Amino acid sequence: MTAVGGRRLYVLDTNVLMHDPTALFRFQEHDVFLPMVVLEELDDHKRGLSEVARNVRQVSRFLDELMAGRDPREIEQGLPLPAPGNGGDGPAPRGRLFFQTRVLDAALPRALPGHKADHDILAVALALRDRLPETTVVIVSKDINLRIKAAVLGLNAEDYRGDKVLDDVSLLYRGYRPLPPGFWQRQGSGLESWSEGGRAWYRVRDPEAAAWYPGEFVYDEGDGLELVVRGHEDGATLLELATDYREGGRAVWGIHARNREQGFALNLLMDPEIDFVTLLGAAGTGKTLLALAAALAQTLDENRYREIVMTRVTVPLGEDIGFLPGTEEEKMTPWMGALMDNLEVLAGGAGGGSWGRGATQDLMRSRIKVRSLNFMRGRTFLGTFLILDEAQNMTPKQIKALVTRAGPGTKVVCLGNVAQIDTPYLTETTSGITYAVDRFKDWPHSGHVTLQRVERSRLADHASEVL
Q1: CA of 26: how far to CAs of 31, 161, 326, in Å?
Q2: Could you tell me the pLDDT band of residue 351, with boundaries at 50, 70 and 90?
Q3: With contact defined as beta carbons under 8 Å apart, do 278 and 436 qualify?
Q4: Does 261-466 match 8-158 at the fold level?
Q5: How far apart are CA 210 and CA 188, in angstroms?
Q6: Nearest to 413 by CA among 388, 447, 432
Q7: What is the tens place of the pLDDT at every residue in 255-282?
Q8: Homologous superfamily of domain range 261-466
Q9: What pLDDT is recorded for position 334?
Q10: Confidence check: pLDDT of 204 > 80
Q11: CB neighbourhood size of 407 (10 A)
Q12: Residue 268 and residue 212: Cα distance in Å, rounded?
């Protein structure tokens, strides 16, 4: 292979392709190099029904398409990567894909013994750096230890950033914002207001309001006014007064909002025009309780949905306890402790003593189905209130596979805490729920709220701050 001036040469680790099969096409005008040991590791992981195996098979299909009809000389000179995959429309610069076609020897320190695949990648990168002094050679890996070893050897190494939604999770859309100072005074005589369906509506013309997202909440700290953005038309922003779900206002299955963010969440959960809701927050902020209360109120009281389906990613906190007996629902029961805990809270307000509470809990359980994510592909949910718990452990691809199961009359609610990710190679900025929040924020039939305050107990509130 020959160096191309001004370009970088990215040496990919196997875990990058296992994590994102499209990583081959995400390096813009720069070149990509695949060591032979990476192809061997891909071959070792292609069998099975896991997400990793499916990704590996997709990588193999991509490589087969790129190599179709090529002779060995073209492969030696590098295969051109498609420009659209590099994130550009039109005649964008294209990188090339190189394979290791010969032995590339480089002396590794004696402190790196054995024949580990990581060491082979390091040796290839060192040999490429020596052979191509005018080219910047960079190892791209999700493995922190490999990146550390590369830095010790004087090699450039980076984490794979092609799947990052944001540079920092603090930049993630929160779903609400305070009204800017002097907002109402600036409106003057141009402010339009009216009442429709028992609700107060406002039409404002303000440059700051033009940047608000549909479904976003705005509030006034001074008088407690809370509004939801309903859209933009003819240079104006349409605002609707939010429903008050705090103590003294409307209740949802006996539950009142304990803070502003919980009230915003209940507005989204109870709105029939909102089809997709994401709730982020630390443990104890009320995500599951609010979602279940809204689901029961709209399924049992209003008959808006036929059933409630709840599922979650089965990633254990500690050591896996092995296979579980029983049917699909019985196997999922140990993972649904949060469901059972919240059902007890929701049934606690029922009259009739312990018998009445037990009857109410049985009724609620009869309308809630617990399902495994492993059997979601190919299904279509009709008239369903679908709750996905622990969504921070899902990849963007898994989130897409689940949300596209929604049929007519279905509402999908994703709950998660990006500070508690247990899936390898996922971070706060690459999690599927982060991806969903960012991609859906412009859609008027979706909404998001980041819950801030822990309402579980003073012990839980203090622990979330100091531990």
Answers
A1: 10, 9, 44
A2: very low
A3: yes
A4: yes
A5: 17
A6: 388
A7: 999 999 999 999 999 999 999 999 999 8
A8: P-loop containing nucleotide triphosphate hydrolases (3.40.50.300)
A9: 55
A10: yes
A11: 11
A12: 16
Measure CA 298 to chain center: 26
Residue matched to tokens 């609707």: 240
What's 8-158's CATH class?
Answer: alpha beta
How far apart, in whole angstroms, are the C-alpha atoms of residue 432 and residue 435? 5
The alpha helices in 51-143, defined as continuous H runs, are 51-67, 72-77, 117-131
431, exposed or middle or buried, with CB in 10 Å at 0-12, 13-18, 19+?
buried
Question: From residue 350, how far is each of 195, 266, 359 by CA, in Å?
Answer: 36, 21, 9
Residue with tokens 């029939």: 272
Report CA Rg, the chain: 27
| Spatial CB neighbours of 65, under 8 Å, sequence gap ≥ 6 | none
Q: How far is it between the farthest Cα atoms of the chain?
A: 82
pLDDT digits (tens, 9 = 90+) for 391-403: 898 888 888 888 9
CA distance 393 to 435: 12
Cβ–Cβ < 8 Å for 398, 432: yes
Q: Does the pTM exceed 0.85?
A: no
* Distance, first Cα to last Cα, the chain: 53
Bridge partners of 384, per DSSP, are: 307
Res. 285: pLDDT tops 70: yes
Domain residue spans in the chain? 8-158, 170-241, 261-466
Q: What is the dihedral sign for C-alpha 183, 185, 186, 187? A: positive
